[in-house]
Structures are given as C-alpha cells and as structure tokens.
Amino acid sequence: MRRYELMLVIRPDVPDDRAQAVIDRSTRTVTGAGGQIVKVSPWGRRRLAYPIESYREGSYHIILFDAPAEVVAELERGLNITEEVMRHMVTRIERPAATRRSERDEDAEVAPPEDEPEPEGEVIDESESEAAPAAID
Q: What are phi and psi of 90, to 5 degrees?
C-alpha cells in the first residue's frame, strides 16, 4: 500500500456537521476499500489565494492515509460530485527507503549508516548562511 495525503477545501458556509459528514464519507471510502487512515487534521478556516465560486475563505482539512492505488480514483470520483467541497487534491507521499524495506520484510534488519570521517579544519554550515545573493538590484 502507498501513503497518500488528501487536502480538502470545504465551502465556508457549510455547517460543521455537514463538513464532518464529508470527512467521514471520505475516510469510510478509504477504509472500506482496504485502506487505513493514519491521521485526520482540521486546519480551520483560511483565506484563499483567489476567489473560488465567489468565496474568499475555505475550511481546510488534511487526511493522511495508506491505501491501494485504486482507492484514490474512487475517492476523487466521490469528491468531484460533492457540493460542499470546493477543491481537493490527493498527493502520493514518498516514504524513506528504510521504511519501505521494513514493510516488505518485517524480519530484515536495517544496517545503521556508516559514519563519515570528520573533515579537518574549520567547517562552515552553509545552511544558515546570511549571505545575500549577488547583484539582485
């Protein structure tokens, strides 16, 4: 099974009980087809980048789930005809290779990564550099 993330943008004028019904229907679709819900997190109301159907805000919800690929098509088909949903997007999440390997063979042990030798002299961490890019003006 693969891991997916579903982002739902629900109309802001939808009552909370109907919005929860849309989320429950989506999770039932996943679990009914053999998938597993990992996490459901409501993000709340947020301003949209551009108006959708004359709405300037939307209620965001994220659902993280593991499921076979066929489930995604069925889930999207249902969300396309749901009036309460303004937008939705399903994204496949790549898991680290060590996690995928352990899922295939539960008895396999993952060898720890070998330590790289420490470089001699002063080491500069470039990730926190405050240097500005040249010639932006």
A: -105, 125
